[in-house]
Design goal:
It contains twelve helices and nine strands. With 329 residues, the chain is an alpha+beta fold. The protein folds into two domains: 100 residues, Phosphorylase Kinase, domain 1 (2-Layer Sandwich), CATH 3.30.200; 220 residues, Aminoglycoside phosphotransferase (APH), C-terminal lobe (Aminoglycoside 3'-phosphotransferase, Chain: A, domain 2, Alpha-Beta Complex). Strands 1-2-3-5-4 form a five-stranded antiparallel beta sheet, with helices on one face. Strands 6-9 form a two-stranded antiparallel ribbon. Strands 7-8 form a two-stranded antiparallel ribbon.
Length: 329
């Protein structure tokens, strides 16, 4: 019986894939692109696919897993704020397809691997985030907040997928400690959170000027929340080593834009959201390996643990530091 069920599942998957290809072809035909060569681009941890054709990108973001309408909405907000994001040429939100501006292939990662100036490039990314935080001070479009429910939903990926032998009591303590940390976190300015600012989601566009040289993608899951989140996302990159000295230099660049910002509150918030993010990512990488067979993400686990341990040194997170020390013995 199990073999029959497995065969049926594979048949459904193949059928769905063929349906998806047919829908994509219809989308291209609608815009006169059916004769263009479609080149598949490397994928990542998401369910989105990207194709290149005629100096344009095709995004294939199948609903309900992805939301192209949200991508367009956030793109419009970021364009109005003055950030460099892809132009949208066409969209089919019902089926999850978009034609986007092609930024080329010079991601931050590729530029850095080819000896571009690391300090300068990171500085422009920080300047872009600072510009966004200055320009968009009100949540006029009523973006959902990164609230406690989402905070706990994300962080508990760790207890769901970790290899650590966690008792029920340890899991309950975990939720309680994170809840307390969230509820007692210091007040810092709230702004639009892109939520995945890292070198693989940034493009270096040298023909532009100042902070506009930094091009952003992958922000469809944006929320309204603390300004610290995107900074820690960039400076504690799960897939690239960012040395502490560089991170501290970039935080000074950010502080130079906001002289009235409380350094003490900012750093407590920075470490809280850094620790939460690293804990979530450890769960995500474990899930990708166990559930999806994407074991390549496990190579980043030691780096993420190092970030987490560094953030847990902040006095604000003393109780969580003790929890992690106990369960890792």
């Amino acid at each position: 019986m199990s073999a029959l069920l497995s065969l049926k599942s594979e048949t459904i998957t193949l059928f769905e894939e063929q349906e998806r290809e047919n829908l994509l072809q219809q989308f291209l035909e609608k815009h006169g692109l059916e004769e263009e060569e479609l080149l598949s681009l490397p994928g990542d941890a998401s369910k989105r696919r990207y194709f290149w054709l005629s100096h344009t990108l095709v995004m294939d973001a199948a609903p309900p897993h992805e939301d192209t309408k949200a991508f367009e909405s956030i793109t419009n907000l970021l364009q109005e704020a003055g950030l460099t994001v892809p132009k949208i040429y066409a969209a089919d939100h019902e089926n999850g397809f978009m034609l986007l501006e092609d930024f080329g292939d010079l991601t931050y990662r590729k530029a850095l691997e080819n000896d571009y100036d690391e300090l300068f490039m990171y500085k422009e990314a920080i300047n872009a985030l600072a510009h966004l935080h200055r320009e968009m001070k009100e949540n006029t479009t009523k973006l959902p907040s990164y609230d406690l429910d989402l905070f706990l939903d994300r962080v508990t990926l760790f207890t769901q997928w970790s290899d650590l032998p966690l008792s029920q009591g340890a899991k309950e303590d975990f939720i309680g400690l994170w809840t307390e940390a969230f509820q007692s976190q210091p007040a810092v300015p709230q702004r639009l959170m892109l939520r995945d600012v890292m070198v693989d989601n940034l493009f270096w566009l040298p023909k532009k000027e100042a902070y506009k040289r930094c091009g952003f993608i992958d922000y469809q899951d944006a929320r309204w929340g603390p300004v610290t989140y995107d900074l820690v996302s960039l400076l504690e990159d799960a897939r690239r080593d960012v040395i502490p000295d560089l991170a501290q230099s970039m935080l000074k660049v950010y502080f130079s834009h906001f002289s009235r910002l409380s350094h003490e509150d900012f750093m407590a918030s920075y470490c809280l959201w850094g620790a939460q993010r690293s804990t979530r990512i450890l769960g995500v990488f474990s899930r990708l390996a166990k559930r999806d067979g994407k074991v390549k993400y496990l190579e980043h686990v030691p780096r993420v643990w190092a970030y987490l341990e560094r953030d847990l040194q902040h006095p604000f997170l003393a109780a969580l530091k003790v929890w992690f020390k106990k369960v890792r013995v």
